[in-house]
Design goal:
Elements: E1 3-7, E2 10-12, E3 18-25, E4 34-39, E5 45-51, E6 58-60, E7 68-73, E8 78-83, E9 92-98, E10 105-106, E11 110-114
Parallel strand pairs: 2-11
Antiparallel strand pairs: 1-3, 3-8, 4-5, 4-9, 5-6, 7-8, 9-10, 9-11
Length: 116
């Protein structure tokens, strides 16, 4: 079965950094686009970033461009999201998803809280 498990979330101060990981199994990870999305409390889902199978093509939402970096290690079946210069508005539940755009399978999410 397809499994995606996010980790690395936590509480940080504004300006801090976190690196999220998404461990994938149950499918050929290296052949899929992978995506990060998030949902802030009381708000809708927001697409964040996508990366192609080889890891050389990436796209970002304007809200995180220049601050977040998506990457992947196909040998480890793992997707990453490096988050720098975090802002309170980045507080959300972060999900990885298999596939481009919104994907077809999501993990359970990892909580990121940015607060003073």
């Amino acid at each position: 079965e397809v499994q995606l498990e996010e980790s690395g979330g936590g509480m940080v101060h504004p300006g801090g950094s976190l690196r999220l990981s998404c461990a994938a199994s149950g499918f050929t990870f290296s052949t899929y686009d992978m995506t990060w999305v998030r949902q802030a409390p009381g708000k809708g889902l927001e697409w964040l970033s996508v990366i192609n199978p080889g890891g050389f093509s990436t796209y970002y939402a304007d809200s995180v461009k220049g601050r977040f970096t998506i990457s992947r290690d196909n040998a480890k079946n793992t997707l990453y999201l490096q988050m720098n210069s975090l802002k309170p508005e980045d507080t959300a539940l972060y999900y990885c998803a298999r596939g481009g755009y919104w994907g077809d399978y999501w993990g359970q999410g990892t909580q990121v809280t940015v607060s003073s």
